[in-house]
Amino acid sequence: HCVRKMWRVRSLAMAGLAMSLLIGFVGADDSTHTYEDGEEVHIWTNKVGPYHNPQETYDYYSLPFCQPTVKQIKRKSDGLGAILEGTDLTDSGLLMHFKVPQPMTKVCELDVNSEEEGILVDAVRNHYWYQMYIDELPIWGMVGEYMQAAGNEGEENQVEQGFIYTHKDFSIAYNGNQIVQVNLTSENPMPIVMGDKLDITFSVKWVETDAPFDSRFHRYYDFDFFEHQIHWFSIFNSFMMVVFLVGLVALILMRTLKNDYAVGEDDDLELTMDRVVDETGWKQVHGEVFRAPPRLMLYSAIIGNGNQLIVLGMCVISLVLLFTLYHHRGTIVTTLIVCYSLTSFIAGFSSASTYKRYGGEDWKANMVLTAVLLPAVAGGTGLFLNAIAMFYQSAATTSFGTMVVVGAIWLFVSCPLVLGGTILGRSMAVVGDFPCRVNNLRRPIPDGKWYTRPTAVVLFSGILPFGSIFIEMYFIFTSFWNYKFYYVYGFMLLVYLILFVVTVCVSIVSTYFLLNAEDYRWHWTSLFSAGSTSVYVYLYAIYYFFTKTRMTGILQTFFYFGYMGLFCFGLFVLTGTIGAMGTNLFVRKIYQYIKSD
């Protein structure tokens, strides 16, 4: 009975997940993007905020705009991804009909009192902008402008004054029965003076075009920015780095190791008693190299989550690239959540198999740690930032209901898959499945030169992987923090594959030097050396904040460094796992021919 109830709850969670996907892709009234002549077209308001602080957003009517009373105001239902992005569409109340021109029409009258004057002047001084949607196409406008007040010609010491735009002119291009392009022009600036009554007006004009419906998002693409020759040059430069590193690894495998094997075989011919390995170098630590790393449970959990992120990254980038999901609000975030939940099986399988192979026994605790590691960090960061957003009454606040839905997806979809992966991983893994036997007594590690110590290896290893993604990080940061519409996911996929290869090669080379210094602590060293790429990315994020943005205020600063910290933690787990798994294959390969008792 209990099992039946558990599966019933799990089925409801899957149904809720499917509904979230359905809502995210279907939307509400204008989901079909086709209209009959004279049919009402909704103008949706989204948010308002200072231009230089992208995440500091508020509800559109948090500013003292007067609201139309010609029809009932309603909110648009959105999918989970759009809600998590901070999108909350509200009907503006402006009446607009397909192909029906609208002359200048009074919407309402704004009566400016002393409190509203201060709010509006402060908004204009901080370059507040607002966002609207028409047929799922975003448009932006400025609230007003801070400029010199009109006065007598030649008058000195003219003071600057806040002006608010009182007229919105919508220009909409259509092809057949579909909207292809929308434009908004803010006009008629009026000074913000206490006691004044300002008429808020709007107008609509319709323009026929032959531009196809499929190209309507192209106007948001900044081709000159994203397809600049520097972008192509960075890809070529990274590719050449891959060729160099792959050649270096091939040199180690085909030449250096071959010579080492030859020396070992010559020594074996001269031995009449015990067959031993060479007295120096990486072969000397054959009895220690497969010893279980310290904090095995944490190591296994990171490896499990990292393998999940590797697959997750490939899935999301490929789906976005194939189905142009960036054209729809919230679909990328929804896809990320769904793919993360469904790939949780990989985390459980990889973590459990690694944990058992090294002799771990407390598999239940390992399973729980694997299931909560990333969600705990992401959830803790999200709750902290949400508390700040709630304090400032920002539109970026996530509601309690949304958090419950996300928690339910994790609890009833992700966790059972981690359990299934753990069971399968434990059943397939074999304890001590290594090419060499582990010695009973731990061998002391000799003092090597400074550059062969794990700390130096970790610090230097992250430079090349960071160099391979440095330019792409600039484009991604600019898209996320500076209102650019990122669409070059083909570039992102190439850079992702280049990062994978470069990270594996760097980890192999650094581990080879470490083992040659007779230091067998390669597990954590390879993970941290590859994961140190995230440290350089975070340092670059600090540089970007102070030199490429004009962000101010506690809310925006916490959101910037909180999001970047969360991104870099995920990057650490991903790249660290890439390095550790690549190094594991390398170590198993070179030690499988070692002859020892």
Sum up the structure in keywords:
10 strands; five-stranded antiparallel β-sheet; 597 residues; 16 helices; alpha+beta; disordered N terminus
How would you explain this protein's 3D organization?
The protein starts with a helix and ends in a 6-residue tail after the last helix. The chain has about 600 residues and is α+β, with helices and mostly antiparallel strands. The chain has 16 helices and ten strands. The strands form two sheets. Strands 1, 2, 3, 5 and 6 form a five-stranded antiparallel beta sheet that branches. It has helices spanning about 1-25, 80-85, 115-125, 225, 230-270, 295-325, 330-340, 345-355, 365-390, 400-430, 455-460, 465-480, 490-515, 520-530, 535-550, 555-590; strands at about 45-50, 60, 90, 100-110, 130-135, 135-140, 145-150, 160-175, 180-190, 195-210. About 55% of the residues lie in helices and about 15% in strands. A hairpin with a 7-residue loop joins strand 1 (about 45-50) and strand 2. The radius of gyration is 30 Å and the shape is elongated.
Based on CA atoms alone, the radius of gyration comes out at: 30 Å
Query: What kind of sheet is the major sheet?
Result: 5 strands, antiparallel
Secondary-structure element order, as H and E?
HEEHEEHEEEEEEHHHHHHHHHHHHH
Low-confidence stretches: 1-9, 15-29, 269-279
pLDDT averaged over residues: 88
Distance between the first and last residues' Cα: 55 Å
Amount of helix: 40-55%
